[in-house]
UniProtKB/TrEMBL annotation:
Organism: Paracoccus sediminis
Keyword Signal: yes
Keywords noted in UniProt: Signal
PROSITE patterns: PROKAR_LIPOPROTEIN (PS51257)
Upper taxonomic lineage: Bacteria, Pseudomonadati, Pseudomonadota, Alphaproteobacteria, Rhodobacterales
Protein's UniProt name: Entericidin EcnAB
Signal peptide stretch: 1-23
Amino acid sequence: MQKTLIGLGAILAMLTLAGCQTAQGFGQDVSTAGQVIQQESAEAM
């Protein structure tokens, strides 16, 4: 029983870490896209 709980805890920890990295990567992509849009609009003026 204890091994099962430890295994489940390890799986949950890995999923949590993977989720954080995915959200961080998405935020960086959105930020980069926003910077490109700002640069293009500044050049158009």
